[in-house]
Amino acid sequence: MNSILVFSLLVSLLVTGTFAQLVVETANGRLRGRDQGAYYSYESIPYAEPPLGELRLEPPQPFNRKWDGILDATKPSENCAQWSQFIAQPDKLTGNEDCLTVNVYKPKNESRHTFPVIANIFGGAFSFGGTMEDEPQPLMSSGNVILVKINHRVGPLGFLSTGDAELPGNMGLKDQRMALRWIKKNIGYFGGESDNILFLGFSSGAASVHLQLMNKDLEKLVKVAVSLSANALDPWVVQGNGRRHAFELGRIVGCGLLNNSSELKKCLKSKDAMAIAAAASKFLVFDYMPFVAFGPVVEPKDSADPFMTQHPTDIIKSGKFAQIPWLVTYTPEDGIYNAALVLKRQSNGKEAINELNNRWFELAPHFFSYRYQTKTVEELDNHSRELRHHYLGNKSFSMDTYFEFQRMVTDVMLKNATEKSLDLHRRYGKSPLYSYVYDNPADRSFTQTLSGRQDIFLGTGHGDDYFMIMSSPIRGHLRADEKVISWKLIKMLEQFAETGTLAYDNCKFRDNVGQNQYQLVIIQRIGCHLRQVDELPATVSNNLPIGPVVLY
Questions:
Q1: From 121-135, 495-509, 519-533, the region with the lowest mean pLDDT
Q2: Which residues are catalytically annotated?
Q3: Is pLDDT above 70 for 544?
Q4: How many CA atoms lie within 13 A of 45 on its CB side?
Q5: Rounded-to-integer distance, Cα 209 and Cα 235, Å
Q6: If we measure between CA atoms, which residue out of 461, 480, 464 comes closest to residue 472?
Q7: What per-residue confidence (pLDDT) applies to 546?
Q8: Rg value, the chain, Cα
Q9: Fold of the domain built from segment(s) 2-324
Q10: Superfamily of domain 336-533
Q11: Mean pLDDT over all residues of the chain?
């Protein structure tokens, strides 16, 4: 009888302990998560009011209501309404307008009661993606950080702008800022350390992190920041064509030929949200290009609570940006995305790259985000001609010159701005500034999936390091060497969040602020090393692929 009572008591304690972990008391009420084996998940937690009806195309409003009973936080979150590049079918429409939520993931680790926090922004060219795209298993397996994944509006519903105070834009960035405020206020309920928050983003998420740095208030919200393979100075980030695109989108969805911002916004609020999201497809000129059709803008100064009223370059030069430690990174072949799209085979059996020979002057301005930066067609064509000659000389576009095109995309769209950002921050910043280049090619990258090709070794590309930290079904299983690198990268981030210091394995990062040369950590398959360079290197090593891929 006594043994039965003891057993019953132990079961009761176990159930009570599990219930205490699954049910969390917050300022808005109680919510119930899910036991995922190695960790607990709490998904679809609202941080802002749903941006529906009159709240569409408006800055987010904080979710201050209390919900009745226990909120079911076991439901996977929905992406915001979008036309997604990662849907293989012709109809790429997905998501929901009611999407301003966060997902919280907490490891099971009995050795500690509180955890530093990683707040994560997904990539997707400000156009697609969401909190369910990448998976938390690597971070949860390490067991030393809480991960919070932030959903924000994308595409026209997140970034439509008429360039005036009526519809200034940047709703998606304002969503991110509100989510960070929610994390700062609420993460303690989950065991998170609100003073030890690392803000992490990849691709457009990385650019978002840098854009958030343009606001001094970020110093109150996060401790350190990491931008993987993008930053705010990339040419595709800050848009100069917002007003033109806004009224054209209005025409596409049935608002007519308007030229008044108030009338446009009123009309768009009456239209179906999914129709607005789908209209983004009408701005694509080649596959899923241009890189960004609707993105961040410089807002007019008379906007209500603007996100930014100067270009990031000018903000950095003013020194009036958040002074927190920042890591910005790149890979030698970041331009695999979206360069690899031209590797697709067409119905005639030829690769799409051949189209560039006949359509270069039409397509290049869209590919490289300078379509609206020149005053005349002659200037536009001259820039396109010079760009082509610099990388290809007198050669034609073909499979033989694909890697010259990939180098062009890498430099123009990503790497050059990484160097420029480092240069400006080291001259005008005061907080620690770090950088690494990741050089270890994947056997199967997600860009190879996009191109439909597995027969070409493309090099270390966009996301090859990010998917050591956040796993993806597109990326596939990690090799043995990648599992070691994954562990070291995660330890690096954990230490950065907890102590503010940065080291990968035995390589302690050097601060770039005030330095004449760039202080760079090279992360490779067999280790790491420090390097001081006058220019960021394009080619780092002769790493060879491991696995079945072969050179074309």
A1: 121-135
A2: 203, 462
A3: no
A4: 32
A5: 16
A6: 464
A7: 35
A8: 24
A9: Rossmann fold (3.40.50)
A10: Alpha/Beta hydrolase fold, catalytic domain (3.40.50.1820)
A11: 91
Q: What is the dihedral of CA 16, 19, 21, 23, to 10 degrees?
A: -140
Which SS3 state, helix, strand or coil, does residue 43 take?
Answer: strand
In this structure, what DSSP letter does residue 354 have? G
Helices (H), 302-352: 312-318, 336-339
> Cα separation of 267 and 115, whole Å?
47
Ranges of each domain in the chain? 2-324, 336-533
Among residues 413, 411, 422, which one has the least CA distance to residue 509? Answer: 422
Interstrand relation of 39-46 and 101-107 (parallel, antiparallel or unpaired) = antiparallel
Burial state string for 55-87 with b = 16 or more CB within 10 A and e = fewer than 16: bbbbbbeebeeeeeeebebeeebbbbbbbbbbe
pLDDT in tens, 114-125: 999 999 999 999
Identify whether the C-beta of residue 359 lies closer than 8 Å to the C-beta of residue 396. no
AA identity, residue 543: N
The average pLDDT across 297-316 equals: 96
Give how far the C-alpha of residue 144 lies from the chain's centroid of Cα atoms, to the nearest Å: 23
Beta pairing class for 192-202 and 433-439: unpaired
Write down the pLDDT at residue 15: 43
Number of CB atoms found within 10 A of residue 374's CB: 15
Cα dihedral value 541, 502, 479, 206, nearest 10: -80
Query: Any long-range contacts for 543-548 (C-beta under 8 Å, 24+ apart)?
Result: 543/439, 543/440, 543/441, 543/460, 545/441, 545/443, 545/457, 546/443, 546/479, 546/481, 547/443, 547/444, 547/479, 548/443
In the block, residue with structure tokens 């709490």: 42
Q: Which two tokens stand for residue 285?
A: 């000129």
User: How many residues are listed for the chain in this entry?
Assistant: 552
The three state secondary structure string of 176-239 is HHHHHHHHHHHHHHHCEEEEEEEEEEECHHHHHHHHHHCCHHHHHCCCEEEEECCCCCCCCCCC
> Is the full-model pTM beyond 0.85?
yes
Read off the amino acid at residue 274: M
Residue given tokens 């009661």 in the structure block: 113
Torsion of CA 242, 243, 246, 250, to 10 degrees: -170
Contact of 140 with 471, CB cutoff 8 Å: no
Closest CA to 267 of 400, 152, 166: 166
Largest pairwise CA distance in the chain:
93
pLDDT higher than threshold 50 for residue 372: yes
- Identical fold for domains 2-324 and 336-533, yes or no, is yes
pLDDT at residue 16, as a whole number:
44
